[in-house]
């Protein structure tokens, strides 16, 4: 029986030679509960006394009579501990809030760590003191926030960190690490991304960005207006922000084709010492319309079918290729429109029909979204 008890509960051990006092922890659902079991000299389990830690007492409130009953029916200590674990599991299920209550030393540890880091860095903490947000300023004065979810076994277990970044927030953590370590590593990560944000800030400031509507610090893509219904989508590499980004020109063929030819012909002129915006100007040989020169309304032309700009998250990126028309449509709107006309033909996933505005031929891919 002794061996079985140790095997099932390696943290619960006898304190004396007579093996009448057991002390330690029992583990239920990955949580350790401190217990002490006192047995009479004849080891009769019926007369055993159980001492629980305050958490366990709270948790077992309302289960006392069940536990007593189980004690009387248990054959030996192994049986009783097993019964107790079953009761605990039921209790944990009915009181989910107890499942992850950290021990008291968690809170004192948290306060010590915050005092060390500085309370002025704390921008948010939840009522359970488990999730906190810390602010950080990079060397150019940009404000950032890192959100830290602490584990009940903090600092033994690494916390989960997240932030508005284009790269995963990887934190090196040991059981001696503190919030200060997270903050320091976050600052280093911010510095490594300074060039990336500089490139994007210039684009956001000096051009009309059509997408994303409100770029976050994590967004690597910008769709920049070039002219009416013409735009370029650039995907900036956060690790190599000044290299030639992935570019995609969007708009009617007669406008986009010459630009695409310029891009291909001048690609070798890309200078990694200059900003992405400057390079795009040089390679495409254009000036981008900017908030200083144009109104945004000249670019965000709405769909010719539903008269809105956003449809779910889509923007009208299907454009009539006729140079006098150039009307944009949402893919889903155009597909639905064409499908309803008898003159429309379909080949594989391409639908051929007429532009609802100028009646010139127009094609659209079958909508893949539901
Ligand atoms: Zn539409
Ligand atoms: Zn048209």
UniProtKB/TrEMBL annotation:
Pathway: Protein modification; protein ubiquitination. Residues 303-359 form the RING-type domain. Its main location: cytoplasm. GO terms for molecular function: ubiquitin protein ligase activity; zinc ion binding. InterPro entries: Fancl, FANCL_C, FANCL_d2, FANCL_d3, FANCL_d3_sf, FancL_WD-rpt_cont_dom, UBQ-conjugating_enzyme/RWD, Znf_RING. Keywords: Cytoplasm, DNA damage, DNA repair, Metal-binding, Nucleus, Transferase, Ubl conjugation, Ubl conjugation pathway, Zinc, Zinc-finger. The keyword Transcription does not apply. It comes from the Eukaryota. It catalyses: S-ubiquitinyl-[E2 ubiquitin-conjugating enzyme]-L-cysteine + [acceptor protein]-L-lysine = [E2 ubiquitin-conjugating enzyme]-L-cysteine + N(6)-ubiquitinyl-[acceptor protein]-L-lysine. Signal peptide: none annotated. Gene3D superfamilies: RWD domain-like, Ubiquitin Conjugating Enzyme, Zinc/RING finger domain, C3HC4 (zinc finger). It is an enzyme of class 2 (transferase). GO terms for biological process: DNA repair. Its EC number is 2.3.2.27. It is found in: Cytoplasm; Nucleus. Pfam families: FANCL_C, FANCL_d1, FANCL_d2, FANCL_d3. One of its GO terms (cellular component) is nucleus. The keyword Nucleus applies. This is E3 ubiquitin-protein ligase FANCL. It comes from Umbra pygmaea (Eastern mudminnow). The lineage of its organism: Eukaryota, Metazoa, Chordata, Craniata, Vertebrata.
